[in-house]
Amino acid sequence: xxxxxxxxxxxxxxxxxxxxxxxxxxxxxxxxxxxxxxxxxxxxxxxxxxxxxxxxxxxxxxxxxxxxxxxxxxxxxxxxxxxxxxxxxxxxxxxxxxxxxxxxxxxxxxxxxxxxxxxxxxxxxxxxxxxxxxxxxxxx
Length: 140
Prior knowledge:
By secondary structure, this protein is α/β, with parallel strands linked by helices. It contains six helices and six strands, in the order E-H-E-H-H-E-H-E-H-E-H-E. It has helices at about 15-25, 35-40, 45-55, 65-80, 95-100, 115-130; strands spanning about 5-10, 30-35, 60-65, 85-90, 110, 135-140. Strands 1, 2, 3, 4, 5 and 6 form a six-stranded mixed β-sheet that branches.
């Protein structure tokens, strides 16, 4: 089953980006685009142009170090007018450290276990509206 829902994988690790892109495509997402958090923050990737070109409805966005700064950044983006109606599934490599700094979050911790990918795929499917709603997707 293909969903046709455009998904953007935004992460700072190239191997993780590729793993998530391939996993989502294997699970029926045909329009998976990727980007790097640092490129968006620096402006090397023009986010508005990225949105116009790919129109992702779901962002699979990683919160990396420095956690507080990147947490504030993604939430600032979520509040942007161009992001209205788009869904976010947030990941991190250290949920305990992130939660200690910013308070309880609904991020998914990626530590490289196969189960991590199953949780991520289910969360992206929920965010895309192809599975019943769950707790992992955040709409802005």
